[in-house]
From TrEMBL:
The lineage of its organism: Eukaryota, Fungi, Fungi incertae sedis, Zoopagomycota, Kickxellomycotina. This is ClpP/crotonase. Keywords: Acetylation, Fatty acid metabolism, Isomerase, Lipid metabolism, Peroxisome. It comes from Coemansia erecta. GO terms for biological process: fatty acid metabolic process. The keyword Calcium does not apply. One of its GO terms (molecular function) is delta(3,5)-delta(2,4)-dienoyl-CoA isomerase activity. It comes from the Eukaryota. The keyword GTP-binding does not apply. InterPro entries: ClpP/crotonase-like_dom_sf, Ech1-like, Enoyl-CoA_hydra/iso, Enoyl-CoA_hydra_C. Pathway: Lipid metabolism; fatty acid beta-oxidation. Belongs to the enoyl-CoA hydratase/isomerase family. It is found in: Peroxisome.
Amino acid sequence: MSNYKFECLNVNITDEGVAHVEINRPKALNAFSTQTWTEIGQCFTQFKHDGNVRCAVLSASGRMFTAGLDLKEAATGPLATNSTEDVDRARRGYYHRLFILKFQDAISAIETCNKPVIAVIHGGCLGIGIDVISACDIRVAAQDAYFIVKEVDIGMAADIGTLQRLPKVVGNDSWVREVCYTARKVSAQEAQAVGLVGSLHASKEAALAAAMDTASLIASKSPVAVVSTKHLLNYSRDHTVQEGLEYTAIWNALAHNSKDMPTAIMASLQKTKPQFPKL
């Protein structure tokens, strides 16, 4: 656990391998500062290489999941524009692009960590919050949750993953374009209806409990099977069916050598609970 000490995140890992990551800037409504998204990237990158972690749950403290980008920091940070600064525009743009790519990579670490991630949303989930939850595998929400693709209201297009992932999560191009163009508020009930969230719960506590139960069930499975399944789902989403099938054959030519398969099969035949070593 000493490797998971952060300023903006609380991280706890259960004995069964469920990591609970809590965004912890409640006084700022969990707005994403540079420190926050940097730590998100660091945390989930570490999970990818930590065999003790089998599944992760991502939630937030305080009144809401996140108010989005920390606008106070943004006003003086890399997103700020100083028209009086005598800097070549091409050079400024070159380094600004690198900043955006670094930001993107930090949030993409949720998707690429290979361990399934369950998002638990309560209250508002604005702006970058949509980038974050769309990078997760499973989304559950409290009844009071609401969602806003907020970026057009601050004069920009979302650039950290929403426009790339949300159409694939929801599968309704018309709805996605509407909410991205208008920045209107989407209720938890509407989010469930279009498939943005899988289930709704009476409260944040109930949603978190449900997510932890699901994570515990996932953690009880073969870690080789679980990380392989996430990896192949992500690959197949971004490729043709035939490309996905051919890649899966190559991947499983290695993965089928796991001792987890005979262990799982024998446990099924004997109607016992299998025990799998960490990844």
